[in-house]
Design goal:
Elements lengths: L4 E2 L23 E5 L11 H8 L7 H5 L4 E9 L7 E6 L10 H6 L7 E11 L2 E4 L8 H5 L4 H14 L4 E2 L15 H9 L3 E5 L2 H27 L5 H19 L2
Parallel strand pairs: 6-7
Antiparallel strand pairs: 1-5, 2-8, 3-4, 3-5, 5-6
Helix pairs in contact: 7-8
């Protein structure tokens, strides 16, 4: 079976998928999770990455069948032995997917995923498994452009070999958007990894904050890159950049 990739760090191991503003926590409050540009990046500290990933359970074939219903990311991988392709998965516990991406699974120290053969998502309910090949890191081209039908079919057939009663879903849409909650415990874990967390009483307030945050954050990144590319000090750009930082600090202070 043809491998897709060897595991590498070109894609961040831990990253945030910005979600919509109708996500609720245990207290039924609306949740915002963001990453301020230029702040601490856990991916630069391999020890902290390993410690962070320890908080997420990985499931092999038999463990998945006995696990709770839900949405999972999955990998077909080997430890560089193509004759021994294995299955591993982890449950997507929030739509932010922090710590449960395919790259996170591959780098979890409980998994020796040297070579990746397939990846996607699955829905498990009452031991019925429906799966897709949605993975931005590993299979995006296969499903988006029908890049290699032979490889695509090999992945599907191998998954069905592992789970004979499973059903393939030929979709390009992620299942992650179906996850609408995040636990308070998980939010505390996100904070420990450098993410900003804020809760709101209404979805409108959350949405307003969401739009302001990402607008300012985008400007911070844009003007910082402009400064870095200038051969000489540009007073105007530097002034605007400092103003965006101040605007972000003030926004994060708001009650």
């Amino acid at each position: 079976m043809k491998s897709l990739y060897r595991s590498n760090t070109t894609t961040p191991v831990i990253l945030l998928k910005p979600s919509e503003y109708n996500i609720k926590n245990d207290d039924e409050k609306y949740v915002f999770v963001g990453k301020v540009y230029g702040t601490f990046d856990i991916n630069k500290d391999h020890i902290k990455v390993s410690e962070f990933l320890e908080n997420f359970t990985v499931f092999n074939k038999d463990e998945l069948l006995n696990a709770s219903d839900g949405i999972y990311n999955w990998l077909l991988y080997s430890d560089d032995n193509a004759n021994n392709i294995k299955f591993i998965s982890t449950q997507i516990l929030s739509p932010y997917d922090i710590g449960t991406t395919h790259q996170s699974i591959a780098y979890n120290n409980k998994v020796d995923a040297v070579v990746i053969y397939g990846a996607g998502e699955l829905k498990k309910k009452d031991n019925k498994i429906i799966f897709n090949l949605v993975s931005g890191t590993f299979t995006k081209k296969l499903i988006q452009y029908d890049f290699d039908k032979i490889v695509k079919n090999q992945i599907i057939n191998k998954f069905k070999e592992i789970f004979p009663d499973s059903e393939y879903d030929n979709t390009t849409d992620s299942y992650i958007y179906k996850v609408k909650t995040v636990s308070n415990k998980l939010l505390e874990l996100y904070k420990s990894a450098g993410y900003f967390v804020k809760t709101f009483e209404s979805s409108n307030d959350c949405n307003e904050f969401y739009n302001k945050f990402w607008s300012i954050d985008w400007n911070m990144e844009y003007y910082k890159k402009k400064l870095d590319n200038e051969s000489e000090d540009n007073y105007i750009i530097r002034k605007i950049y400092m103003e965006t930082i101040e605007a972000m600090i003030n926004l994060l202070k708001t009650d």
